[in-house]
Amino acid sequence: MTFATLGLIEPLLRSLETLGYQTPTPVQAQAIPAVLAGRDLMAAAQTGTGKTAGFALPLLQLLAMEGPKVTANSVRALILVPTRELAEQVHEAVRQYAENLPLRTYAVYGGVSINPQMMKLRSGVDLLVATPGRLLDLFRQNALKFNQLQTLVLDEADRMLDLGFSEELANIYKALPKKRQTLLFSATFSDDIRLLAGQMLNDPLSIEVSPRNVAANTVKQWIVTVDKKRKPELFVHLMRKGKWKQVLVFAKTRNGVDALVEKLQGLGINADGIHGDKPQATRQRALDRFKLSEVQILVATDVAARGLDIEDLPLVVNFDLPIVAEDYIHRIGRTGRAGSTGEAISLVCADEVNLLSAIEMLTRQTLKRQNEPDFEPEHRVPDTDASGQVVKKPKKPKKPKASGGGGKRNLGKWVDSGEAAPAEPSIKPVRKVPVFNTGPRKRKP
Ligand code: AMP
Question: Which fold would CATH assign to domain 219-391?
Answer without folding.
Answer: Rossmann fold (3.40.50)
